[in-house]
């Protein structure tokens, strides 16, 4: 990588959410798929029991053969997960570029983030890749969410693995997915205009419709355990 100017990039871009549960990453990802036909792979769709991280990275790598941009949809909330994803994809696709969808988690903002993410997850019940709310008590769900928040390691571009990101898009987990979607598209368009050369840019109505679809029409494919 580093060969092409960002403005000339037309493929091999991996979007890496850095998030906890309920930030809206799957919703934003699905809306991007709907709008631009990008690739999207969710961690919980990994079917193998052993070597799951490697299988996740390999699937994302394979999708880059046909999809110009692929969203690696898992929390990636720890440096070791980000290092594994970046290393394994780079081995398969040396020219891959990584963009962080960085749902900023400042410890000082944790209460506001808790409120936003819990409200969403508890209100929407079963509509989630990691938490099948219907089969768990509210306390169990909150405990799982707290675990992710406790373990969260903020992005640090001054050292590995986070110094590899070609672009970091800072997002606010307390904002609506509609607002975060618009922000991501704006930043991607600004940095990688050639990715959008053959598409008509969505207007407000298109963005609303994509989020509406992501939140209401899409149903996750639950794993069987
Ligand atoms: P995650 O992938 O970060 O864990 P999602 O699954 O996208 O988060 O969202 C968690 C729940 O919140 C889902 O049921 C989703 O439909 C809902 N949701 C996502 N974004 C919004 C929003 O902006 N307002 C209200 N509910 C939302």
From TrEMBL:
GO MF term set: ATP binding; RNA ligase (ATP) activity
A biological process from GO: tRNA splicing, via endonucleolytic cleavage and ligation
Transmembrane segments: none
Domain of life: Eukaryota
GO cellular component, one term: nucleus
Residues of the tRNA ligase kinase domain: 14-173
Protein name (Swiss-Prot/TrEMBL): tRNA ligase
Taxonomic source organism: Amniculicola lignicola CBS 123094
Parent-record interval covered: 438 to 662 of 884
